[in-house]
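Dear colleagues,

As part of the handover before I leave the project, I'm documenting each prediction I ran so the next person doesn't have to rerun anything. This entry is a single chain, and its sequence is reproduced below.
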Amino acid sequence: MGKLTVIALRAVLVVLLAGSVFVQAVMVPLLAVDMEELNADYAYLRTPFLVITVLGVVTVEVVLVSVWRLVTMVARGTVFSHAAFRYVDVVIGALVAAAVVVFGLAVLLAPGEAVAPGVVLLICGVVVAILGVALIVLVLRMLLAQAVARDAEAAQMQAELDEVI
């Protein structure tokens, strides 16, 4: 990966991380204030909705930090090691957690008349999409495992060749 690509990806990650911190520090409190004016019939949604929002942002932040660490490993040329699996596993776990959180939102909104049934169905579609991304990352993890195995095999063959020479 070229230096320009690494710099560009890190810039995107910084912007996204700053945005997520902004959402947690500014937008969620403003949302909490706005939700105080909810109809009394829907007041029970306030706290769970805010908790789900914060948890969703936390899962995004976990993914961003893990991707930052993986980009650092790529820049150093150490991504084809067993240490990379830890960060990939964290990304997969965070994506699954995000899917659970979003599904929790769908469950929260499903009963009653708070939102239309189509909105709940769209939220469930987002859950499927997030799980799809988690599966893609899992496949990429398997490819990483193959690459690490091949790298170790190549290093062993190189060592044997060095002994012969």
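Helices lie at 3-35, 46-76, 83-109, 117-164. The CA atoms of residues 35 and 132 lie 32 Å apart.

All the best with the project,
I.
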